[in-house]
Structure formats: C-alpha cells, structure tokens
From TrEMBL:
<feature type="transmembrane region" description="Helical">
    <location>
        <begin position="468"/>
        <end position="485"/>
    </location>
</feature>
<feature type="transmembrane region" description="Helical">
    <location>
        <begin position="492"/>
        <end position="510"/>
    </location>
</feature>
<dbReference type="Pfam" id="PF05226">
    <property type="entry name" value="CHASE2"/>
</dbReference>
<keyword id="KW-0472">Membrane</keyword>
<feature type="domain" description="CHASE2">
    <location>
        <begin position="44"/>
        <end position="482"/>
    </location>
</feature>
<dbReference type="InterPro" id="IPR007890">
    <property type="entry name" value="CHASE2"/>
</dbReference>
<keyword id="KW-1133">Transmembrane helix</keyword>
<keyword id="KW-0812">Transmembrane</keyword>
<protein>
    <submittedName>
        <fullName>CHASE2 domain-containing protein</fullName>
    </submittedName>
</protein>
Length: 511
C-alpha cells in the first residue's frame, strides 16, 4: 500500500506534455511488453495534455496580449469590398503578387519593422508567364518580378514563407538527358554572384551549372542545340557565348532551384546537434524569381500533437536533399526575429535558443518550442491571442491613396512593430485547434510565436533531474503517510480519511 500510494503521487510529476510525433514513430504491438508500456504512456500523456491546457489558460488569465506583433488579415469583408471596388485587378482572389508586394511596401512605409507573408508561392504567378522577348531580370514572370522588385525596395524588412513535410520521399536529382549542349553565360569571382546569374537561368526553365574555373566560378546553361544556345546567350545579355556539348560530369555541378533556396534560408546554430532535429523530406519554397538575399525565409508548417492540438512551433528542422549535406531551416517567426536582431548567428545552450545578443526563446534539442499563449481564450476575430489585427482592405486603401497622391485615410500605428500578413477568409486553410480554443488562424499562431521570441519568453520545461527528485520526494512522502496512517484502514471512517489525505496531497501538487 505504501509503495502504491507513493507511486501514484510520483506519477503526478513524472509526466510532461509531449510534442508532435515523428513520421517514423511506429507503435509497438499492443500485446508486447513495450506496446503495453506505450499504451499506458499514451493514456497518461492524454491526461497530462488536458491538465497542461488548463494550466496554459490559467497563465493566459494573468498575461497581457502582445502589441509588438500585429496581424493584417485578408478576411471575407476585405474580399467583398475588393469585389465591389473600382480596381479590376483585385476583384478576384488570389490577388496579383504585385498587389501583395505593394501592401508589404506600404506597411514598411507606415513603420513596420518586418513584414511576414504567410503565403507560399511555389509556382510562377498565374497572372503572367515568362516573357522570352525580354532580357535580364525582365525576362522573369512579370508578376513575380514586380513582387520581388517591391520587396527589394525595403531590404531586410520582409520574410517569405515555405512549407515542409516530414513524410514521403526526398526529391530526386534532376535529369539532364534533354539538354545535350551547354552555353557559357559568364565567369564570376564568388559563389554569391554566380548563384544570382544561375537564378535568371532557372527562371527561364533551363538547367544551370556552376563549374569551378580557377579561383572563380563559371555559369553554364543547358540547351537543346547550338541555335538555342546562341538565342539564350543573347537573351541574357551574353554576346558570342561559348557553346559546348554537355558532359556527364557536368551533372555534379548542376544547381536546382532548391539549392538556391537552401543557400539563402539555411542557418548555422552553435551548440546544437542537427542529428536531433526533426528531419523533413519535402519542401515547398518560393519560386525562383522570388529568391533574393534581401528577404528572409521561414517555415509556416505547424504540426499538431496526437490529439490534433497545436501547442508549439518547431523553430528548427533539418533537411538533407537526396541524403546529402544536412541543412538547418528556421521557422517564419525565427527568421523574422533574425531580421529584427540583424544577425544570422544562432546559439543553443541550456535549453534556450539565442538569436544574437537580443532575443532568446526556450527550445528543446529537437528544435521544438512550446508556446506561451498570452490570452485565456481565443477571440472571435482574426487576431487570436494577439492584441491587434488590421483589415487588409484598410491597408489597400492607404496603398491606393499613396499611388494617387492623396492623403492616407488610416493611421495604423505600426512604428517599430512586426506585421504578419495572412489569409483568414473562407479561402484560407483550416483553422488551428489550440489550448485556448479552436478556430485560430495559422498566422495568429505564428504571430504568438514571434511575440514570445521578442519578449524572450516561453514555456520552460523542468529538467529531467528536477522531475526525478520531485518524483522521489513525493513517493517518499506518500510512503511515509501510508505507513504512519495504516491503522486508519481498520475502519470505514479511517479509510475515508486516508483517501482524503491522498486527495489533499494531490491537490497540493496541483496548486
């Protein structure tokens, strides 16, 4: 009885809420010893999640909603206003990417320190295709080029989104069998300049090759024949370009769009073992014309716990294309915080991730951070746990006023604040279920994650050593009470009093 009573009290502190399950986590057979233990653990984890959510809501009662992150929402009212407005280009959704770029530029002009776009653009814009008669940057999709040009007007103030998947097969290496020739497009002193040149080749749906040449790097493009090679060279501003037959060894130097993206988005983290991070297998990153060092890149994927509730954000994940070099990729909030801190340096120590010398956030070794929700319940509007949200229509009206040289109509008070531009309309993906309630937009969850980073706050897990000591202490107290009060079990009243003592001990821990 003493051992049983002590173990029951010890279980109260031995549990901790678990994170999302990995794709390769396969349950053991139920009738096996490990399967039986897993079944009990899952049952206990379910109870701990309910208890954890209650504690999170109690914490939200004494918290203050953050005003450092503002949500700009494309809601149903905004789309209805756009359909009835005089601008034909925004009457249908999705809007042209040039409009989205104009909104970002307008938000920065109104004082936003950084603007996160909770939209993935993995394909060329349907509004415009590649223009083969134009040269250089103008040869890209005009709509995507317009978005990139507007973002480049405010370098360092925008963060574009990508998504990842933990299941499926990795992307296969590109094949070069349809490109028997290659055309030389220039030689560059460094990899950065060469990648910028390769970007223009990839945007024209041609394979690009970065081939070392002495201390520099040559950029070649794959073509079907010599005539196409001369035409492509002229289109990209290279007269009398050298054309050669493509060799099988060239495939080792071939650059894919994902290679350009990984070079821009990946981060280095001091003190963190990448092998412990969640390894993702699929990426949906912005299309080639949108890639530029003037913007940051972060993931918007929010995996849920086994019960379907989103309780945290994986700030860091690992990706190994074709099983090769391992890259560490950040979340959208983390990428925004890096832009705000003006640093690419990340450091992990003692359960915290440090972003330069300015911000930090609690995070475990797998890259996962539990969110501190700064509200006891979700609001009916789009802002969720955040203090403020702005209708995108108001931003559009200010943008149109500026374009027509009129005074702007709205003062959004965005000076020094981070902004996340997201879709909360009927066209948006499904809402998230969270500890503070269902129906929260994906952008609001990401905004709360950024607010935690900017406040250097979050949910800190107790170290396993503390768990062990607390479990042993409560087990000892339980055993002592059971032995000292064993005489009470000789009567019904005594047994009832004994149970009350056990309940009081558990209630004391809850308090």
């Amino acid at each position: 009885m003493a051992a049983l009573f002590g173990c029951l009290l010890g279980l109260l502190v031995s549990q901790r809420v678990t994170g999302p399950t990995r794709a390769d986590d396969t349950p053991a057979p139920l009738l096996s010893p490990s399967g039986f233990i897993d079944g009990i653990s899952h049952w206990l984890d379910g109870g701990e999640r309910v208890f954890y959510d209650w504690r999170i809501r109690q914490l939200g009662e004494v918290s203050e909603r953050s005003d450092r992150v503002v949500l700009v929402s494309i809601d149903d009212d905004t789309l209805a206003e756009a359909q009835q407005g005089p601008r034909a280009d925004i009457a249908a959704y999705p809007w042209p990417r040039q409009v989205m770029g104009g909104m970002v530029h307008r938000l920065v002009e109104e004082g936003a320190s950084v603007v996160m776009l909770d939209f993935t653009y993995p394909e060329l814009s349907p509004r415009a295709c590649v223009t083969p008669t134009r040269t250089g940057r103008g040869a890209l999709s005009q709509d995507d080029d317009a978005l990139r040009a507007l973002l480049d007007q405010d370098p360092g103030h925008s963060v574009l989104a990508f998504r990842w998947g933990a299941e499926g097969t990795r992307s296969l290496p590109p094949t070069g069998r349809l490109w028997p020739y290659r055309v030389r497009l220039g030689s560059y002193p460094g990899v950065t300049e060469a990648r910028a040149r390769a970007q223009s080749v990839l945007a024209l749906q041609r394979p690009a090759f970065l081939i070392p040449a002495g201390k520099g790097m040559e950029v070649w493009a794959g073509v079907a024949d010599e005539g196409e090679g001369r035409s492509l060279g002229e289109q990209l501003g290279t007269a009398a370009a050298s054309i050669q037959e493509r060799r099988a060894a060239d495939d080792a130097f071939r650059v894919a769009p994902s290679d350009l993206f990984l070079a821009l988005a990946s981060v280095q983290v001091q003190g963190l073992d990448p092998e412990k991070l969640l390894e993702v297998r699929q990426l949906q990153h912005p299309v080639t014309p949108l890639l530029s060092p003037a913007s940051g890149y972060g993931a918007t994927t929010l995996p849920a716990d086994p019960d379907g509730v989103v309780r945290g954000v994986p700030h860091l994940v690992a990706y190994s294309p074709r099983g090769g070099e391992r890259y560490v990729l950040p979340s959208l909030p983390l990428a925004a915080a890096m832009r705000l801190a003006g640093t690419q340096k990340l450091r992990y120590a003692e359960g915290r991730l440090y972003i330069g010398d300015k911000y930090s956030v609690p995070m475990d070794a797998s890259g996962y951070s539990l969110l501190r929700w700064e509200a006891p319940s979700a609001t009916r509007g789009a802002r969720g746990p955040l203090a403020r949200s702005i209708r995108a229509w108001n931003v559009l009206l200010n943008l149109f006023d500026t374009q027509e040289a009129r005074p702007t109509r709205f003062d959004h008070d965005l000076e020094g604040r981070a902004v996340i531009l997201t879709n909360t309309s009927s066209y948006a993906p499904e809402r998230r279920v969270t500890p503070i309630g269902p129906g929260i937009a994906n952008g609001a969850v990401l905004g709360q994650a950024l607010a935690n980073i900017l406040a250097s706050d979050g949910i800190v897990r107790a170290p396993p050593k503390v768990d062990m000591l607390a479990t042993m202490g409560l087990a000892f107290i339980g055993a002592f009470l059971a032995l000292s009060c064993s005489w009470l079990l000789r009567s019904v009243g005594g047994a009832f009093l004994f149970v009350c003592v056990a309940v009081a001990a558990g209630a004391g821990y809850v308090g």
